[in-house]
Structures are given as C-alpha cells and as structure tokens.
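An instance as discussed:

___
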Amino acid sequence: MKYMGITRRWFLTVALIVILILVTVCFAMIISLHNYYYNTASLALDAYSADQIASTFALYGGGSTNAFRAASREFIESFPDKDEMAVWAIDQNGRVILSTTGFQILDEVDMPDYQAALTNGLDAAKWTGKLPSGEKIMASTCVYRHAGGKVGGAIRFMISMEAIDAQLVRLSLVIAGAALLMFFLLVLSSSFFIRSIVNPVKDIGETAKRIAGGELDARIDHYPYNDEIGELCAIINDMATKLAAGDRMKNDFISTVSHELRTPLTAIKGWGETLLQIGATDPAMTERGMGVIISESARLNEMVEELLDFSRMSSGRLQLKFETIDLLAELDEIVFSFKERAIREGIELVYNVPQAPAPANGDASRIRQVFINILDNSLKYTTHGGKIIVTADMTEKSALTVTIADTGAGIPAEDLPHVKEKFYKANSTVRGSGIGLAVVDEIVKLHEGTLTIDSVLGEGTTVRVTLPLVTAKEGETA
C-alpha cells in the first residue's frame, strides 16, 4: 500500500503554513515601514500649512508681483529645513520664480498639487509622483491669497523620496533575508527532529517485521533518547522477550505433553499386545493388565480434559454452573480420595478443618478440580516420608481459606512468580503439562477468590485458596 511519509506530510502542511506566516509577516512589516516613512515625510510637509504661509506673506503687504517675489526670497533664504526639502515660489501665473537650489526653473513643470490647491477650497494639497527628471518626490503646495481672495502666489515644498525608497528596499531585503534564514533554520532543525523520529520509527517497523517473521531475538538497542519513542522501543523489546519466552514455553509444553501422552499410550499398547498374546491362559496377568489399561486411560482422559479446559480458558469459553455448594464437603471428598495414594507413596496426609458447613455459590466440579490439582501437585513434589497438611479457616464467616502445605521439593524464588503462567514448569523432571495451575487460578478468579503460593526451595510449598461464602441473608434470598 502506497503511503505518504512523515517528512513529506510535514512539508505539505507545516512548511506551507510557516511560509504563509513568514510571507504575511514580511509584507506586514514592509507595509508598516513604508507607511511609517511616508507618514513621516507627510508630517514634515504638514508643518508648513497654508495659514502659516498666508500670515508670513501678509507682513509684506501689497499685491504686486515684486512684493510677492521679495517676500518669497526672504522666506526661502530664511527657510530652516533646506537640507531636508526643496522649496519653490510660484507666482500668480503658475511660474516658478524662486527655489532653494538657487537655479531658475525655466521649463513648465506639471504640478498636480498646485492645481489641486487652487481648486479644492483648502488652498493646500499634496501629491506624490515623479519629476520629469525621473526623481520621485512628495510635494505639498500652499496657496497665498490677498485680502480679496485673489491668488497672490504659492509656495511648494518637496521632499525627495529616492533615499526613503532606497532605505525601504534595503530594509525589505533585510526582512526577506531574515525570513529566509528563519525558514532555513526551521527546516534544518525540523529535518533533524523529523529524522530523529522517522529513522527510529523505520527501525521499529523493520524490527517488528522481523519479530512477526519469527525472529524473536530481534531487538531495538540503539535509540538514545528517553522519550515516547524510547518507551515504545522498550515496550517492543519487552514484547519480543515475552514472545520468545512464550515460544520457548510453548515448545517445552508441546514436548512435555507429547511425552506425557506417549507414556500412558505406550503402557496401554504394551499391555494390549501382552494380553492379546496370552489370551485367557493367565487370569491374574489379564486382570493386572486390564487394571493398568484402565488406570492409564483415566490418566489420558484427565490430561485431555485439562487441555480442553486450557483451550476454553484461553478463548474465554470456560463456563461455570453456579449453585449453592458446601466447600468443606467438596474438600472432604477430595482429601478422602487422595488418602490411599498418600499411604501408598509413604506420605503423611494430615487433615484438619472446622466441623461446620461452608456454603458458597460455585461450580462443584470446578471446585473439586481446584483441590484435586493442588493435592496432586503436593503429592508429586513430596517424597517418601514427607507430610501434607490440609487446613481450613473461616474469616468472619465471609470467606473460607483452604491451606495445603507440604514438605516437598519447594519452588526456586526466581520461578515462584511464574508458576501460575500457562506452559510454565518450574521442575521439568516431574510429570505434568504445566497448565494445571493456570487453569486453577482462572477457576478461582471466576469464583471471585484468590490463589496464593508461598514456597522455600528444599523445604516445601504452601498453597492458599480463598473463596467467598454465602451469608445467611443471601442464602434466604436465593
């Protein structure tokens, strides 16, 4: 399936957004600077209003051209801002008669601001444009009128915009360069950051493929950061470790079950062939052989049932038939059935429980399965001359705790936390599939009880099963 990489997605989304933001900011800054410089120039021109011109020229009196020329000469010669702006004196005929440059302007000059000042009723107007020489200026014209309203002349102030525009171009280039540098640094840092994510993710994907392909020893061991990806790497490594351990246990389980099945099948086959050969000539041998066949068939049946229970547990199909039962009565029956085996194996079985009913809501066959499995394990791991003690204790009549303690081989400390896991066998020399305690633990949990195991290697194991009891009120309700 074709997919879009993280880097490409970043450039198609984040990079485009960043570019738009930078372009917008640059334009906003350039426009702001343009407005600032142009407004500054406009304010400098606004310092000389038509009223000020009129009051200045009124001091000279008269309406003649010579009087206006004399006043204009005096105004231009005393003008304080000659370095910042040029000043023209325009007579009533629209000719430029004097300027701060000292040169006479003979050619007719297009002066839109002068024309606007004559007609707009304000006696003042501004204009920004280019002179015939190509120089860009901002001009402001103030018209002087005599007392009768007749135009006596005008003063035109001009500021060159060439230096301002050049400065704006330089600032624009600086802003654009800074924006490009920022974008370059952002792309560079983001590329390093994205690679620090993309490359490990690719490694994780490759490792996951290897694990999925059965290479359970594959690990991610070169990610240097302690972050979410590092945590993901640790999780995948832990998953691979658990899968490898589970695979080993599964293989051991298959090997163990194969061996466990082969032993009774060999005995059944062997005795079947023997009985077929001797026929009815030896009744004692026939009886003995049939006993072995029946015993081993029962053992096979127990193993198959255990496997079926495990399959149901793994798929969530382990169902219970709940009814009101007496837990101690079920325990009595199981302990009694194991007494003969304990005597036969030279193991002392001590049984001490309260002489009182222990009503509970549970599945009688499954509860017996729990006690059978635990007692069977105790007998298997306890040698001749050992002891098994079965006791029961009611906790405020709300729960029953059955304790089965033996003086058997015990369980190593490193194996103890895993004995309730499926396929796990702490001692591979003792027969068993390794799933019995996993099934037992599941049954106890379905009864809302707890199963705890304490053990000391070489001294013995103590198993406690705690199950809730039915109170009198609950029993009456039921």
User: Anything to note?
Assistant: Residues 275 and 431 are 27 Å apart (CA to CA). The longest helix spans residues 162-212.
